[in-house]
Write a structure and sequence with these properties.
359 residues; alpha+beta; 12 strands; 20% strand
């Protein structure tokens, strides 16, 4: 389901079934909106600010950050700022160049340090994770509307050609989750004086990390505190992965190397069931087989999304790296390739969407 703020503290929700039609209904004050979703056990996913400007679409996705009350800057934003601030220090001499060409600017900007490269890669991969989750929620919302419109509300299992997009975004989510995991491992390697080009994955980091490294590096200490490393039973100084990061890795490997999501018969079809039939509240379910159990794929995705979001936010804050928002003065601007009036019109000023999921 989604909730849209049409003006300050005034929301409508959709889809609600009303006389056989999928409708947007309201109006809720913000406090009552929260009570409505809490009543039915819906889980909050993200804020999504959307705007169309002169035919251009802009979507600004902000996930819930575990343990935080302000969700304006997600982990992708923090790591993007880390990379930008590292770049700003490295490219300070650009201001001294006289009429540099685009090729000269590109060559300097792309000559990243290892820390800058890794931070930028973390940010881009986190943004790809956000996009995957956004598209999965769009699929769920669309299917719920379709099932309401066609009257398939009693558990009838349905598949369509659009299912292929769901399968693709589920795989994309786990692919980029693995990429973020390995980029974080590379950064840890760099911070303990290992070559990040060689120690470029969590598996390789585990092979080289020792007890003294947890004492000397804040990021590794964070990993250890979260239960992602444990001592090998057969060794006094070697470690292995554990906890959530091992669970996520195992699931990623299952989808990437053994059995892709959508391969099993039960995963090929989704269905809708009533949450509160009298109130017109329903939920869409898309099964996922995990071992001998069946779950909802968006529910599983959300669990891992919470973990990677919380980890990467805390990692940016803990790293000691500069994640403040980059500001530009008149002396910092070398060249501009945008139409300033179009840019101003594209700033998202309208109200956000909230995506929520019923487990």
């Amino acid at each position: 389901m989604r909730a849209a703020e049409i003006r300050d503290n005034t929301w409508h929700i959709e889809p609600i079934l009303d006389e056989g039609h999928a409708c947007a209904k309201g109006f809720f004050h913000t406090t009552k909106l929260g009570a409505f979703f809490h009543q039915y056990g819906f889980k909050f996913i993200a804020f999504n600010r959307i705007i169309w400007s002169q035919g251009n679409f802009n979507s600004s996705w902000r996930p819930l950050i575990p343990g935080q009350t302000n969700h304006l800057r997600g982990p992708a934003d923090l790591w993007g700022s880390v990379a930008a601030n590292l770049s700003d220090v490295r490219t300070e001499h650009l201001t001294q160049m006289v009429r540099p060409t685009q090729q000269q600017i590109a060559a300097i900007l792309d000559n990243h340090t290892e820390a800058e490269r890794i931070a930028r890669s973390i940010s881009l991969s986190l943004r790809n994770i956000d996009i995957s989750v956004e598209q999965i929620t769009e699929f769920y919302n669309e299917q719920l509307v379709n099932h309401m419109s066609s009257g398939r509300l009693s558990g009838e299992r349905v598949s369509t050609s659009l299912d292929q997009t769901l399968f693709a975004y589920v795989h994309t989510f786990f692919m980029h989750l693995g990429a973020v995991r390995d980029y974080l491992a590379s950064l840890c390697a760099l911070r303990i004086d290992k070559n990040p080009q060689k120690v470029d994955s969590l598996a390789r980091l585990v092979d080289v990390v020792r007890s003294e490294h947890f004492e000397s590096d804040d990021l590794l200490r964070l990993f250890h505190a979260r239960g992602y490393f444990r001592q090998k039973p057969s060794s006094l100084d070697k470690f292995e992965t554990s906890g959530w990061i091992k669970e996520a890795t195992d699931l990623r490997n299952e989808f990437m190397h053994k059995c892709p999501y959508g391969d099993r018969f039960v995963e090929e079809m989704g269905f809708t069931e009533a949450v509160d039939q009298a109130a017109g509240v329903f939920r869409y379910v898309r099964p996922l087989v995990l071992g001998n159990t069946e779950d909802d794929v968006q529910n599983v995705i959300l669990q891992h999304y919470r973990e990677i979001t919380g980890l990467c936010y805390e990692a940016a804050v803990t790293s000691g790296m500069n994640y403040s928002v980059l500001t530009l003065g008149k002396d910092d601007i070398i060249s501009i390739g945008l139409n300033a009036s179009s840019l101003l019109r594209a700033i998202p000023l309208d109200s956000p969407f909230i995506a929520v999921h019923s487990p």
